[in-house]
Amino acid sequence: MSSVDPIIWFFMFGIFAGVVKSELRLPGPIYEFVSMLLLLTIGLKGGIELAQRPFFTLLPEISAVLAAGFALPLLAFPILMYLGRFSRVDSASIAAHYGSVSVGTFAVAVAYMHSQNIFYEEYMALFVVILEVPAILVGILLARGVTTGSVKWSAVMHEVLLGKGVMLLLGGLAIGWLSGPQGVETISPLFFGLFKGILALFLLEMGLITATQLGSLRRYGLFLVGFGIIMPLCFAVIGAALGAWLGLSVGGTSILATLFASASYIAVPAAMRVSVPEANPTLSLTASLGITFPFNILLGIPLYHALSTKLFAILGGS
């Protein structure tokens, strides 16, 4: 019997179906429903964990993660511009994608921790929300400069803060926090009992979408492939080091490393479309969705867990 989690097989099945040009597609309303359920469940889990601890005790961790969210795109930008020789706007746009996070990758990391019976701090969902925003702001400033008046900040902030993804995560967090563990028991069969099944359907669709990006790899060359793999590995090291420094568990450190290694393919593309419309979305989506997402799902998450475990062994933690 295969030791690979069945949700990974769903993702690979989606890629196969897309590559052979099957007619298989998840109906639009079903994909919409699956995405909403996934985001609400992640938010609820984080909110329940938050309800069990004073919020101010998390302020050091929130501040550190927020600061890292501003720093990551600044690290990626010069590599893209000077080594990759992309234009300024394309470099800024891709850097913003890699400074932000992927909720789908986070969900798979959570499922991995549960399947391996690894403890992690469930308030990590809060970090997903925190890491969505800074990279977008930095990406726009890198593309436009600090003195430009051409950016419609109100439209950008509306897209970022009131977009569906962040709203569902924040809504789930608030409901979980207000209700607490006992309060959500009556709805837990839908949100928690079906989590892996819902995630499997989500990954099936993501596999189909990923397959549509594979053709772009030939067009944009080896640099983008290398960047889409090496950059997440470098960011994972930073995330693991930060998690260990913050005193997170091995599981929490692994998830933070995964978040740093992931790249956005929902919130950032929408924000870049509003604020930097001349950036080529095919470049950033090919890298984030065609390279980094499958790499993280198939290989990255176990690697980041092994990295965190090794780091804790060196530091003498548990």
Overall number of strands: 0
Q: What letter string, H or E per element, gives the SSE order?
A: HHHHHHHHHHHHHH
The CATH class? Mainly Alpha
Give the helix proportion (percent range): over 70%
CATH architecture: Up-down Bundle
Span between termini: 31 Å
Q: If helices are DSSP runs of H or I spanning 4 or more residues, what is the number of helices? A: 14
> What is the CATH third-level topology name?
Na+/H+ antiporter like fold
The largest pleated sheet is described as:
none
- The low-confidence parts are none
Structural class by sheet pairing and helices: mainly alpha
Cα radius of gyration in angstroms: 19 Å
| Number of spatially distinct domains | 1
Report what the structure shows.
The chain crosses the membrane at residues 6-24, 62-83, 95-113, 125-143, 155-178, 190-209, 221-246, 252-271, 283-304. The protein is built from 14 helices and no strands. Helix 8 (153-161) packs antiparallel against helix 13 (267-275), helix 11 (195-246) crosses helix 14 (281-315) and helix 12 (250-261) packs antiparallel against helix 14 (281-315). The chain has a single domain (27-315), classed as Na+/H+ antiporter like fold, CATH 1.20.1530.20. By secondary structure, it is mainly alpha-helical. It has helices at 6-19, 28-51, 59-83, 88-99, 103-115, 124-132, 134-144, 153-161, 164-183, 188-193, 195-246, 250-261, 267-275, 281-315.
